[in-house]
Amino acid sequence: MLTITDDASDGQIPAARSGSLHYERPASNWFEALPIGNGRLAAMVFGGIETERIDLSESTAWSGAPASTDVNPAAAGSLGRVRELLFAGEARQAQELAVRDLLGRPTSFGTNLPLPDVVVAFGHGDRAEGYSRRLDLDDAIVTTRYLVDGADISREVFASHPHGLIAVQLRSGSAGALTFRVGFATDVIPGAVSSDTDTVTFDGHAFETLHSDGTQGVRVLIRATVASTDGTITVSGDALEVADATVATLYIAVGTDWRGEHPDDRVDALLAQAAADGYERVRADHIADHGALMARSTLRIGETDSSIAALPTDERHRRLARGERDDALLALYYQYGRYLTIAGSRADSPLPLALQGQWNDGLASSASWTNDFHLDMNTQQNYWAAEPTGLGECQEPLFGLLDLLAETGRVTAREMYGADGWVAHTVTNAWGYTAPGSGAGWGMNVTGGAWLALQLWEHFEYSRDLAFLGERAYPVLRDAARFLLDYLVLDPETGWLVAGPADSPENWYVTEDGSPASLAMGNTVDRVFSEAILRIAGEAAKLLDVDETLQGRILVAREKLPPFQVGRHGQLQEWLLDYEEHDPAHRHTSHLCALYPERQIGPRATPELAEAARVTIQRRMDAPGWEQVEWVEANFTVYFARLLDGDAALRHYTRLITDTSEVNLMSYSAGGVAGATQNIYSFDGNAGGTAGVAEMLLQSDGEVVELLPALPAAWKDGRITGLRAKGGYVLDLSWSDGVLDEARIAVAPGATAKPIIVRYGDETLPLEPTPGLTTTISPR
Questions:
Q1: How many CA atoms lie within 13 A of 404 on its CB side?
Q2: pTM, whole model, 2 decimals?
Q3: pLDDT digits (tens, 9 = 90+) for 499-519
Q4: pLDDT in tens, 442-458
Q5: Nearest to residue 704, comparing CAs of 777, 767, 769, 756?
Q6: Between helices 474-487 and 396-417, what is the axis angle to 10°?
Q7: Which long-range contacts (CB under 8 A, 24 or more apart) does 562-565 make?
Q8: Measuring CA to CA, which residue among 567, 577, 617, 572 is closest to residue 594?
Q9: What is the rounded CA–CA span in Å between residue 513 and residue 515?
Q10: Are 358 and 708 in contact (CB under 8 A)?
């Protein structure tokens, strides 16, 4: 039986440290370096002895440009014929016509590009003793220390959000023992380097020829300034030389002319402010700013021996991969996803997290796919951890992108489909691309924008902020619903309203004549997001007391959407017909979005469909050549959490860390999959893994908050603070021997909470919101 105790305190548990990544040698490659970021400017810090390498990335450093010719002009005239062919079972002919007339024709799509490295070369060679390299997740500072000839050499590197730049301080324990050279490695984008007095400047352009024409892209300006030192500064060609210093401070600022910004003004102002405030002020402001977000949630799982916790992170990663237990490393990965979210996406960031977050290794941008915004899972997954782990404001740049897509997608909806509202498909860019993609099998994901728009509703559900709903979310959601109401058509055989022609990204099926096809009518993924958008737009309109006619249209349309279906293998059907999969081992399981992030399928409400979802997952894993990539393991973690199978969720969470994350714990898309020749960093695994842990420990749908719904048996003891629940709540949970000790529940800061039902196991009780009061729930 659950019991309630009210506590007049604020209910806060003292903050615990989030942990750190630490190593006993410098990074020898990108996947050993350590990430920093301020929501716009990011870097990978290598911590070298002879040379420090700081790989720069910046979210607006995009090639390409806006375009008005992305929609194929033949699309509107061929749409009806493609539908007719698909309804008639002529999938091959429909596919051929759609490839010719429906796919997009991007001419200047572009990609986010890596920037020149900042290189700091020292005069002491590579001899060193007592080396250590560490990233503290609470301070967001990379610290490197070692001894050279008895002198203690140290560096701190961080990306400051308040000051908008990267700060580097170099120190020697012996007076005047620090000598180094500062310059750029400039082989990534075209530009020129110059030096003057105390500053090295790179001035170039984000030009490339794979995803644009080599002449379109933003101007990029980078300045690295030695802001203070007790040594001497000498201009040496295109670099600076600092000699006989004990302490030296370097600031690195970047600006672009994306959407009319003025890079010179931005960079000069940032550098001047940092120099005026001084390093200690810049450092203190950075720690306070980052730490305020990081401290919102803490996690302790089980017990990890202190001798194991003291091991370097790369050794702990190898131990975990060998099957040795390290609960603290599992908890660290949860916090690492939060750290990367904070570092990569802040409320004032100009663009949201791209495929590689803010850390561009140059591999995605030089692949057949790009470092862009993928709307058939990846961009959404980038933000799955934000709301439940207390980082809701980090979604703001995503909402800005949605505003842009709702504007540009209005043209695509009208020109291609003759529809009201807006649409976006599989990929988009910094310029608001909304046409279909250019390739068969992935380009025609018609509900990609609708899927992304669900994040607006997600944000509302956690805050219940009616002003946000009315002013920011509802216009985008309403017009996504208007598009679907115009776009959906009646299946002549069943009378169901179905979407199409569309891909179920990015899978193919086997047609009746044995040939592969991707386009179909009534794909499950489109049913899921049609239902979601229509339901949400209708509910939002009702809450806001607007658009009564639209509400009526939505009710009629929802009643005609097709039901979920179970196929011949006991699997959840991916297509309206029970087709065999052309690639049974495919990484995409787009139809399982009904399980997560949506709740249209679940073990309590729809047990038969939940079992069909489980069969689907098992069939994927059992198929020869299963494409095990980072976001698949993250998906399976949240899927099994929703299926209330904590042990299976933990297995996939652990595999995410050991099999699809490198020794710096950054997740990757495996080489050999989707045309990748080597492992390529992808942000979504890190965020998805963190979301998976949150989902194991707390689930909420706005009506019911369930405590420890998928607690793995191995996690017998633990404590988590700061989890957010839909309905406007924040919770701290502790448990021992696999049983809940207590849950402390309070109205989340700034939220307008609603009454909820609290569930633990088979027990439930109602809870009324009381601002300023913490409620403690415990089993008796």
A1: 18
A2: 0.97
A3: 999 999 999 999 988 999 999
A4: 999 999 999 999 999 99
A5: 756
A6: 30
A7: 562/491, 562/494, 562/496, 562/497, 562/498, 562/522, 562/527, 564/524, 564/527, 564/594, 564/600, 564/601, 564/606, 564/609, 564/612
A8: 572
A9: 6
A10: no
